[in-house]
């Protein structure tokens, strides 16, 4: 793994991304997106995860997070492991997504630790948020993702995005909306 994608300072926020195997559009279904929402909420309530921004796209998700004192690694590992189990459990009863099950089985067949399905691509690609300018660049990127993807016309129209929080609309997750005082490195 390159140095670019390592969380080295546990005090700073990070832009993180993780994607579904073969970019399958699993999160088009709110049933699966809600698994992510509930898991993020659990990590916020019980593991010290601070959430500044998020967007759960059909094939991947982006977040700006912080886990003071720990860094994001252990929380992201647990989040991906738990959501993978929950998604696998839900897919067993989902006859409409057989193509996803086949793709996830194929991905798991090459890995000893995976017994049935591999849902997530490896890694979470943390990028350290080192300045306010970079924070707002990533925030804009996250919020514009569904617009650029042709899903909605306005960022706040996408339900699974913190753009709704910033627009003071109902949203599935609470976030921290405050200025982060960061020095430019």
From TrEMBL:
**By its UniProt entry, which InterPro entries does this protein fall under?**
RAYT_transposase, Transposase_17, Transposase_17_sf
Q: Which residues form the Transposase IS200-like domain?
A: 9-145
**What Pfam families does the database record attribute to this sequence?**
Y1_Tnp (PF01797)
GO biological process terms on file:
DNA transposition
Q: Which is an annotated GO molecular function term of this record?
A: transposase activity
Q: Which Gene3D superfamilies match?
A: Transposase IS200-like
Q: Which PANTHER family match?
A: REP-ASSOCIATED TYROSINE TRANSPOSASE
Q: What is this protein called?
A: REP element-mobilizing transposase RayT
Q: What is the lineage of its organism?
A: Bacteria, Pseudomonadati, Bacteroidota, Bacteroidia, Bacteroidales
């Amino acid at each position: 793994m390159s140095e670019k994608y390592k969380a080295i300072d546990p005090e700073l926020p990070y832009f993180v991304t993780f994607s579904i195997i073969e970019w399958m559009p699993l999160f088009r279904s709110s049933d699966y997106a809600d698994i992510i929402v509930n898991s993020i909420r659990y990590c916020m309530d019980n593991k010290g995860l601070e959430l500044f921004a998020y967007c759960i796209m059909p094939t991947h998700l982006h977040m700006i997070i912080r886990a003071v004192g720990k860094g994001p690694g252990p929380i992201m590992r647990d989040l991906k492991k738990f959501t993978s189990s929950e998604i696998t459990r839900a897919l067993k009863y989902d006859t409409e997504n057989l193509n996803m099950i086949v793709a996830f089985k194929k991905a798991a067949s090459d890995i000893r630790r995976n017994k049935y399905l591999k849902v997530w691509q490896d890694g979470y690609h943390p990028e350290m948020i080192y300045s306010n300018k970079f924070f707002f660049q990533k925030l804009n990127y996250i919020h514009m993702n569904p617009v650029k993807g042709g899903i909605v016309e306005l960022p706040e129209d996408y339900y699974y995005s913190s753009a709704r929080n910033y627009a003071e609309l109902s949203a599935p997750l609470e976030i921290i909306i405050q200025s982060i005082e960061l020095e430019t490195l």
